[in-house]
Task: inverse folding
């Protein structure tokens, strides 16, 4: 991975931090996209302390703001001559419904829409850098997911699991549609279920009850560490045999079938168009057409 430039979102903790450390250990130049300056800097210092000659830097962005995501992508486009691996990993869990200032339900906005925007905004750079790889972190909850086109923001009926399932399915559909759009360009798009991983995801949830947090803490010993999740993501980022593999869903380094619904090309196309409407403020913006 020497001379490769890799961007990892949500790299300040959990799975993303472990992936960033793994990429740095392989010699890649790593850009950690993070929201919280202190946490991001602490994570960067930890990586630098554990990996000799680590090339790691931080770009700060709050994924709840489309403007911030667009600005971060533009900053990246201007600063870096190439992008070899984009890992869309940042995510959050909301026990109660919250909206971004742009009026999008938070889970959908952070876990999916911000990454749709970021990836499209980096389209020209990715095309220029081919062969390159886009990896979307999603999860097995996509199997229960439904895209609620009539109520994408779940205003009428919200639950954390409904929002998580919708966002995870959206990430899988996005991966497959991106793979169709980038066929023959040298860009691959794959997605991954990281496993059941012990992280601080509930710490960011402003409304998680003490009981829910306690249950999660009690379950932690039975969960895998973030390093385990990183194994498959690092494999997707670096394995030479995957250079032409695209549009697949991976668990434990193996491509497996995702839900039947996730293969509906019309559903993916509809989601793409809606996502474009929700994120595009200027038709001249770069996009995978
Ligand atoms: N853990 C699991 O078992 C599991 C299972 C399936 C899928 N996943 C997915 O794996 C991904 C990583 O989660 P994790 O378990 O590693 O949780 P985590 O430790 O909480 O990491 C989440 C990362 O996303 C960042 N993030 C959250 N909200 C953000 C925002 N508004 N703007 C920018 N960054 C934001 C966090 O940054 P801060 O440090 O600033 O909070 C953190 O770096 C998520 O997409 C999650 O849905 C996890």
Result:
């Amino acid at each position: 991975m020497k001379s490769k430039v890799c961007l990892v979102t949500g790299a300040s903790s959990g799975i993303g931090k472990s992936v960033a450390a793994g990429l740095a250990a392989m010699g890649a130049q790593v850009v950690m996209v993070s929201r919280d300056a202190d946490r991001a800097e602490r994570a960067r210092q930890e990586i630098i302390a554990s990996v000799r000659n680590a090339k790691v830097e931080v770009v700060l962005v709050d994924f709840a703001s489309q403007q911030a995501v667009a600005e971060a992508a533009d900053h990246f486009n201007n600063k870096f001559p190439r992008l070899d691996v984009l890992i869309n990993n940042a995510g959050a869990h909301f026990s109660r419904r919250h909206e971004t200032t742009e009026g999008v339900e938070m889970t959908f906005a952070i876990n999916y829409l911000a990454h749709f925007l970021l990836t499209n905004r980096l389209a020209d750079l990715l095309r220029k850098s081919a062969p390159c790889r886009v990896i979307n972190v999603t999860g097995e909850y996509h199997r229960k997911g439904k895209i609620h086109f009539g109520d994408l923001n779940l205003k009428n009926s919200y639950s954390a699991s409904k929002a998580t399932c919708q966002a995870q399915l959206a990430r899988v559909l996005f991966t497959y549609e991106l793979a169709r759009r980038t066929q023959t360009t040298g860009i691959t798009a794959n997605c991954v279920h990281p496993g059941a991983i012990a992280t601080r995801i509930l710490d960011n949830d402003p409304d998680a009850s003490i009981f829910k947090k306690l249950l999660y803490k009690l379950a932690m010993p039975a969960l895998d560490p973030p390093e385990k999740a990183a194994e498959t993501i690092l494999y997707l980022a670096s394995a030479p045999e995957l250079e032409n593999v695209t549009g697949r869903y991976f668990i434990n380094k193996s491509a497996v079938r995702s839900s039947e619904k996730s293969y509906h090309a019309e559903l993916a196309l509809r989601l793409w168009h809606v996502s474009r409407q929700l994120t595009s403020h200027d038709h001249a913006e770069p996009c995978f057409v």
Observations:
- The chain has one domain: 5-279.
- The pocket of NAP is lined by residues 10, 12-16, 34-36, 39, 62-64, 89-92, 110-111, 137, 139, 194, 196-197, 199-201, 204 (CB under 6 Å).
- The first helix runs from residue 14 to 25.
